[in-house]
Amino acid sequence: MTSSHEPETASEFHTEARERLTALTGREVDFRPGQFEAVSALVEHRRRVLMVQRTGWGKSAVYFLSAALLRRRGRGVSLIVSPLLALMRDQILAATRAGVRAQALNSANAHEWDEVLTALGNDQLDVLLISPERLANPRFRDEVLPRILEHLGMLVIDEAHCISDWGHDFRPDYRRIGSIVRALDPDIPVLATTATANSRVVEDIAQQLAPGSASLGADDVLVLRGALSRESLRLGVLTLAQPEQRIAWLAEHLGSLTGSGIVYALTISQAENLAQHLHDQGFEVAAYTGRTDPEERQDLEQALKDNRVKALVATSALGMGFDKPDLGFVIHLGAPSSPVSYYQQVGRAGRAVANADVLLLPGPEDVRIWEHFAQASMPTQERAAAVLAALDTADPLSVARLEALVEIRRGPLELMLKVLEVDGAVQRVSGGWVSTGESWEYDAERYANILRLRRTEQQAMLDYERLAPGQCRMVFLARALDDHQAQPCGRCDTCSGPWYPTSLAESSLEQARATIDRVGVEIAARRQWPTGLSALGVSLKGKIPEAERAEEGRAVARLSDVGWGPLVREALQAEDRPVPDQLVQAAVRVLAEWQWQRRPGVVVSMPSRRHPVLVRSLAEQIAEIGRLPYVGELTWAHGGPRSSPESNSAFRLAGLMGRFTVPESLAAEVDAAAVLLVDDEIVSRWTVTVAARELRRVGAEAVLPLALGLRG
After folding, report:
1. Distance, CA of 21 to chain centre
2. Could you tell me the pLDDT band of residue 287, with boundaries at 50, 70 and 90?
């Protein structure tokens, strides 16, 4: 691009920058405090800048404006790394209107990649937006990225708290950015932006942004921090002891909340169940979770933006990047695990409206859910060693192949590979993953410190819930982010008293109880053997033959359900004893509502190490109530299963094959019969799949699994 002459004075540069800002926003506006300082530092002085500003402040205006001004001075394309795929679409449209040529490379627009790369190669782009995962793609990393870095105008790291181990939403893919930053010429400006970083995270990010020169360090990074308080938000906490009270409150008062908004839940099952209840009460709502298809997510986001739904009932899957300036409320059914995460989510509301309501309805089950997620995200030394040992070969291994060699489920395995890759121990190449041969040591102290920090954050969230009158909630959240400029808001329930209704009609409570009291969760039958079994000595592959398959099953409840979940969990965690009468009656209700094609003729129980009495008593009582013969239980062979339910599918199945036996006396009873197969808990579905296969092979006409609990 041809370079225009440089402005000779600061006044001329300010005028030019303001003209470009007007083009970008489509209206005459002035810079907000800190915006011009950031643009000047990046464009005139080629500095490294960290901006910590609240959501909606205008961080994207800074980087698009700076990119345009740098291009006018002959600099190359600016690279923006952002996890916000939904926001990318809006940003590209806004940039295009302002004459900034912007395109994206991410998982949502794979059909456009060749066109985008051609434009990039012809120097026809000012800005390229990519997701952090794109940095792990071998073709992009080895072919495209080096060409970009040769003529890079500016590097932008959006949602930069994801870089830091100490951030509330750390992502391993972001750690790759550090090596890119360290290798950049100090003359290339770098901008990192976030709305949610406390002083510890700010210091960590600044260290990672520091130029590679030994004479420069984190002090050479310009940190621009703004006030994080949101004057438009009216915060509150309403503590209701029972889950039916929290659900009833939402159903009774959702309609009185202004505009449309988001109702957050902690788990997928909670979000889905709550969305169904609110829909049954006549509200236009929809669930938005990790199980929602990407195409449907985009449609649901647009429906909320267009106010075609009253609310999306969402998990944290609806988080960074969703931009609806007039979002009227955010309600939480259950608290996030830290004040910083909470601030990030409630910050979706009240960006362009004077008033928005934010209410937290905490539950006693929150702490258990927090602890589960805190532990699940931590790699272990044993698992890392297993992955490195498996990759100690000359040939690349795909994730599916690697999964068959290490006893780790797909999700945790992919997370582990990312951690090992950014640490330099493994590398993704064409065809899979290989070891780099570099030494690697498990940083136990680091992970222990992170876990301690997570638990400190959990306690801070509990402290937020219990603030006394006069202790402002907005001040508490701002100080959690080390913003000590905050002043009491005068609007929250601790400043001025409860602003929300606290009454509950008995009819609302009865409807909520009915929802909570629902029993029965479908258990889909496994239809396909996992890949990679041959590496474990199992010769099965492809589809499971229909003649060896289980039918669709049922569980009384998911363990994460707010209704029957706690009672089922209590029974599974207690010392082995006969099944409680309540759960027997719940199981009978499940059977009564089960629309099976063929009614079971006999009842069989699974053997159990932890709950033999529980399982057998459940099977016997169901048989007695249903006037069916209880014909006994399967037995173990060779000591029983030798894999954990937490193993990946290949390992779990390999540890189950040949481990169940159908006694001869039992085989005679199940021949040509439909079997109700009773178990305590279903985790992976492979146990009942293998047990059903054994029963079908001795003549059972059908096998219908029934369990107390379903995990997940």
Report:
1. 34
2. very high
Tell which residue, 326, 320, 313, has the closest CA to residue 340: 320
CATH of domain 380-441: 1.10.10.10
Query: What is the spatial distance between Cα 359 and Cα 237, in angstroms, rounded to a whole number?
Result: 6
Q: Compute CA distances 673 → 459, 669, 682, whole Å.
A: 55, 8, 23
Longest dimension (CA), the chain: 96
> Alpha-carbon distance 463 to 688, whole Å?
44
Asked if 559 and 521 touch (Cβ cutoff 8 Å), the reply is no
CA distance 659 to 642: 8
Helix axes 410-422, 175-183, angle to 10 degrees: 20
Q: How far apart are CA 602 and CA 622, in angstroms?
A: 10
Give the right CATH number for 233-370+451-516 from 3.40.50.300, 1.20.1740.10, 3.10.580.10, 3.40.50.10950.
3.40.50.300
- For CA atoms 184, 185, 188, 194, the dihedral sign is positive
Structure token pair of residue 440:
């690697």
Predicted structure pTM score: 0.81
Fold of 10-225: Rossmann fold (3.40.50)
521-710 is a CATH 3.30.1360 domain: no
Q: What is the pLDDT of residues 113-139, one digit of tens each?
A: 888 888 988 989 999 999 888 887 778
